[in-house]
Amino acid sequence: MAITRNFKTKKVIRTAGLMTGTSMDGLDISIADIGLSNNTADFNMIGTTSIPYPSDLQSQVRQAVYGTTKNSSELDHDLGIWYAEKLSVYLKSESIDNIELIGSHGQTIHHVSGQSTLQIGDPSFLAEKFNTPVISDFRTADINAGGTGAPLMPRVDEWLFRNIDTAIITLNLGGVANVTFLPCTNNGDVIGFDTGPGMALLDETFLLESNEGIDVGGEFALKGNADKRLVNNWLKAPYFLELPPKSTGRDQFGLDWLADHRRELSSLAIVDQLATLSLFTAKSVFLACEEFIREHQVARVIISGGGIHHKCVMKYLKKWFNPISVVPSDQLGVSVDGKEALGFAILAVAHVKSIPGNIPSVTGAKKALVLGKITL
Q1: CB-based burial of residue 350 (10 Å sphere; 0-12 exposed, 13-18 middle, 19+ buried)?
Q2: DSSP strand pairing (373-375 vs 191-197)
Q3: Which of 30, 61, 96, 143 could connect to 342 by a Cys-Cys bridge, CB 3.0–4.6 Å?
Q4: How many other C-beta atoms are found inside a 10 Å radius of the C-beta of residue 165?
Q5: Residues 375 and 134: beta-carbon distance below 8 Å
Q6: Torsion region of 121: left, alpha or beta (phi above 0 gives left; psi -120 to 50 gives alpha)
Q7: Which residues, including other chains, have CB under 8 Å from residue 110's CB and lie 6 or more apart?
Q8: Where are the alpha helices (DSSP H) in the chain?
């Protein structure tokens, strides 16, 4: 295709990345000038922002995640229009122009590791409004090649952070938590997987108990006392015993999980429930990393995602990972809230340059593949 041939010769491509994650809280946008090769990604960040879902649209998203095909079909259309409108407003407000490419992850409605996945938000509205190619549907190619379809950020982490001298762990705390293990260059394969719950259980619990928003900063959770016995019992669940490659989602750690553990949780005050779930998230992350830490001289854990603002989860993470330093990704020039959106901008550039975007040692796919589908 002529348009992708033109991209292959460009050294730098101004790209918009759009991400709506499993937290179901809104749209992250990152705009960057991106240069990409097989081994490294260079970028100049032009702008990044987060736009909350309006309450009616968030309600539609929740109904689609926990509801019917009809909900998903209608929302695919509505989200596509909303993405295009919000990107347009943001670009105008920041006087950003000359967008050449868009990478849109879409809203995950369904993900069963290695079987099927569905992200919605019709990309044709973006393509039409900006007269720009849009890359979307990043996960299905990996699943079709025998992979889990997630996580995809390890390839981005490798491009951005892999170091010749030190081992690094990256952690994204969205609705689900996922990690990337980056050994020193030439000292082993990159490994990445979903560790289990991120912020989804905390957000759903606060919403159920308070009927108002979420405990973004973790102030309520900090007032509580964690029930360590419950946490240790929950960590015996089959998912935590599985070896990578593996991925998960709200299908396993969402409302159904809370319903199954309602009796245990209801015996605790709301602040104690939140403290207990905070410890559950943090300890499940650390235990997933423990073997890699034993085998490598890990220099630091680089954290991004909305969970970084949750003081209680961060308190437990720093306690468990001590003496390894836990640092926000913005200390390395990558926005903590915009990293995944930047990641899908980079994966969009990888698509038009025919560079594989998955890592078989991460997802279990038979081979490395160019990810995504193009809408013109």
Answers
A1: buried
A2: unpaired
A3: 30
A4: 8
A5: yes
A6: left
A7: 65, 116, 117, 118, 249, 251
A8: 2-9, 55-65, 69-93, 124-130, 140-144, 153-161, 200-210, 219-222, 228-234, 238-241, 255-260, 262-266, 270-295, 311-321, 339-352, 360-363
Q: Is beta strand 325-328 parallel, antiparallel or unpaired with respect to 298-304?
A: parallel
Buried b (16+ CB within 10 A) or exposed e, 226-258: bbeebbeebeeeebeeeebbbbbbbebbbbebb
Residues in the chain: 376
pTM: 0.94
Q: What is the 3-state secondary structure (H, E, C) of 4-71?
A: HHHHHHCCCEEEEEEEECCCCCEEEEEEEEEEECCCCEEEEEEEEEEEECCHHHHHHHHHHHCCCHHH
- Yes or no: say if 357 and 343 are a contact pair by the CB < 8 Å rule: no
Answer for the pair 373, 48: CB distance below 8 angstroms, yes or no. no
How many CB atoms within 10 Å of residue 10? 15
> Rounded to 5 degrees, what are φ and ψ at 247?
-145, 160
Of 26, 25, 16, 12, the residue nearest 88 (C-alpha): 16
Residue 186, SS3? Answer: coil
User: Cα Rg for the chain, rounded, in angstroms?
Assistant: 20
Q: Are 61 and 54 in contact (CB under 8 A)?
A: no
Q: Does domain 2-150+337-375 have CATH number 3.40.50.720?
A: no
Q: What is the pLDDT along the chain (376 residues), one digit of tens a residue?
A: 456 668 989 999 999 999 998 888 899 999 999 999 988 899 999 999 999 999 999 989 988 888 766 678 899 999 999 999 999 999 999 999 999 999 999 999 988 888 999 999 999 999 999 999 999 999 999 999 999 999 999 999 999 998 878 999 999 999 999 999 999 987 889 999 999 999 999 999 998 888 777 898 999 999 999 999 999 999 999 999 999 999 999 889 999 999 999 999 999 999 999 999 999 999 999 999 999 999 998 999 999 999 999 999 999 999 999 999 999 999 999 999 999 999 999 999 999 999 999 999 999 999 999 999 999 9
* DSSP annotation string for 264-306: HHHTS-HHHHHHHHHHHHHHHHHHHHHHHHHHS-EEEEEEESG
Domain boundaries, the chain: 2-150+337-375, 162-332
Whole-angstrom distance, CA of residue 172 vs CA of residue 329: 10
